[in-house]
Specification:
Length: 386
């Protein structure tokens, strides 16, 4: 699961990078704003804002220079009058068209068929700039000239001072920029998808870690099955390993509750219980499991019944965990009885060793005396000793 999510995250990152690069490369070539530079007969210059259409050819990078002609009819919803003939073929003509009454693509297509190199569509009763579009694919395939949209105030100024009849001309200059609405929305969508994938990955990892931690901890019902004994000085002789709690390093006091683990290690209940229920269900010292794993729990009953059965595969030494069946008191009493038995046996062995050593010394002394005496005296002494 984690591997598939990691591969998905990698794929999402690669897709995001590729789309971002392609988006920037495409938008860098797409003029989303433009200016109209208008020149009159007195070399007066004025700049007007416009917005290119989403269909037709783009404006050239160096701009498009031409003479401005009013459309006839103004709405260009039907074929319009062609531009005037000029001896100088280097000059292009740009038509000024009024909005409304038909679609933008129809207006621009009629301007193209009339012989104009570009079209300027102006708003009516508003200076708002509109991005001109089209839904007719057949018409879009036929449009080859660029077109822009301007406000009504700009159109009135162009008609008054910069038309072909008044000796003016215009230059359509594209401005290559990246407006916020063109790249921010796709960027936010991609970032949102990546964030959602990251959140899903983090939630999945959290659930798996939580499940793993819960599986490695001891439950409350399992904790209650581990025996607890009260420590009493003088009553039980405690093994030296149980003199100090290995967790808090405090000596055991009378009345302290000690929890005896199956590995025979004892700890304060207040010390070992949080370890078992919140960290791991193993002994803090020897790392032996306190309870069998889930797979072993099913066979726990069978193994306990067969514990006393002996076969050829039975090990010579029992596992250390078998000590856990003894209570802490019984364990301490067994240690006490064993120590007393060993001490009594040790005293008897000492007495026997003393008697035997005395006897050996007596025999050695007698044999030495016998060897040093003459034969007659040796027989006499031997007879007396018998």
């Amino acid at each position: 699961m984690l591997l598939s999510i990691g591969m998905l995250m990698l794929s999402a990152t690669q897709i995001y990078t590729i789309l971002t690069v392609q988006l920037f490369a495409f938008l860098n070539l797409l003029p989303v704003e433009a200016d109209i530079l208008a020149y009159n007969l007195e070399n007066g210059t004025q700049t007007f804002d416009d917005l290119p259409a989403r269909f037709g050819y783009r404006l050239p990078a160096e701009g498009l220079k031409g003479f401005l002609i009013n459309s006839k009819p103004e709405n260009a919803c039907e074929p319009i009058a062609p531009p005037p003939l000029r001896d100088n073929s280097s000059g292009a003509f740009i038509v000024l068209i009024r909005r409304l009454e038909c679609n933008f693509d129809i207006k621009v297509l009629n301007a193209q068929r009339a012989g104009y190199k570009a079209a300027i569509v102006h708003n009516v009763d508003s200076d708002d700039l509109i991005s001109m579009g089209s839904n007719d694919i057949e018409i879009l395939k036929k449009i080859d000239i660029p077109s822009v949209f301007i406000g009504e105030t700009s159109a009135n100024s162009l008609k008054e001072e910069f038309t072909y009849e008044k000796g003016g001309h215009v230059v359509l200059i594209p401005e290559f920029s990246l407006p916020l609405e063109y790249y921010l929305i796709p960027f936010l969508i991609i970032v949102g998808i990546c964030l959602i994938l990251i959140v899903i990955f983090m939630i999945t990892k959290f659930v798996q870690d939580r499940h793993r931690a819960r599986r490695n901890r001891l439950r409350k019902d399992q904790l209650k099955k581990i025996p607890v004994h009260k420590f009493k000085k003088g009553k039980w002789i405690i093994h030296y390993e149980y003199d100090v709690c290995a967790i808090c390093l405090d000596e055991y006091e009378d009345g302290d509750k000690l929890r005896i683990l199956p590995c025979s290690h004892a700890y304060h209940c207040k010390c070992v219980d949080p370890w078992l229920t919140k960290t791991k269900k193993t002994c803090p010292v020897c790392k032996q499991k306190v309870v069998p794993s889930q797979g072993d729990s099913d066979s726990e009953t069978d193994s306990s019944q067969e514990e006393n059965e002996v076969s050829e595969n039975t090990p010579l030494l029992r596992p250390l965990a078998s000590v856990s069946t003894q209570s802490f008191g019984a364990l301490s009493e067994s240690h006490s009885h064993q120590n007393m038995t060993e001490s009594s046996e040790y005293e008897e062995d000492d007495n026997d060793n003393i008697d035997s050593s005395d006897a050996e010394n007596g025999i050695n002394e007698e044999s030495v005396v016998v060897q040093l005496q003459p034969n007659d005296e040796r027989e006499y002494r031997v007879a007396n000793t018998v």
